[in-house]
């Protein structure tokens, strides 16, 4: 792994083959999901007897148990995921591929001696690499500095997902891996925690970050390899010019 701040060095010579191993576990909004559960999905209708009551839990809306897959399963916690026909694009590189729901007996609804299955989490996500102490952010090209085929520098914008009181992540963006091949540049960026004890969650602005390549970009595609599968990094639309 290579780490940097502000600029990135290449993780592999440009003529080397891709050698990124597929992870065993990915994250969905912080929830650990075995990749096997996504590659070879088991429908919610296959839940074991001790977990099946989760489907009738409090707050569980009617859904087709044959289309939702089992992401986590135990006697007190069930996580189900459903791949969206059309991914949700929240803008600025934040694209969500799945809906998910977590149902647990470890909830406010449970009482001593009486376990109650209840929805404790429900949202959307895209499978993301577990970067340890770092977290993956949303990544786009910087529209104010478009990538040039003859340049060995990539201007990116990284938006931190963690709460940071509306501040950017300047000085905390790091390169985890950067792999160059003849057809693509695959980059994994992580954001180091700010260390702030308390922070509000109104959303954070994008942080400019420059990655250095071993050779000019040419016609190669730039890919965000922090998500699974890797997704092309594109530029967000520029805001409309003021009318005069």
Shape: elongated
Bin the strand percentage: 25-35%
Low-confidence stretches: 1-20
Count the DSSP helices. Answer: 1
Give the termini distance in whole angstroms: 50 Å
Main sheet overview: 4 strands, antiparallel
Oligomer: single chain
Helix content: under 10%
* Structural class by secondary-structure content: mainly beta
Mean pLDDT, all residues: 88
State the total count of DSSP E strands. 14
Instruction: Give the strand line-up of the largest sheet.
Output: 3-4-5-6
Rg for CA atoms:
20 Å
Number of domains: 2
Task: Please provide the ordered H/E string of secondary-structure elements.
Answer: EEHEEEEEEEEEEEE
Could you walk me through the main structural features you see in this protein, from its secondary elements to its overall organization?
It is built from one helix and 14 strands; from the N terminus they run E-E-H-E-E-E-E-E-E-E-E-E-E-E-E. With 244 residues, the protein is mostly beta strands. It folds into two domains: 25-127, no CATH class; 138-232, no CATH class. The strands form four sheets. The protein has a four-stranded antiparallel β-sheet with strand order 3-4-5-6, with no helix packed on it. The relative contact order is 0.20.
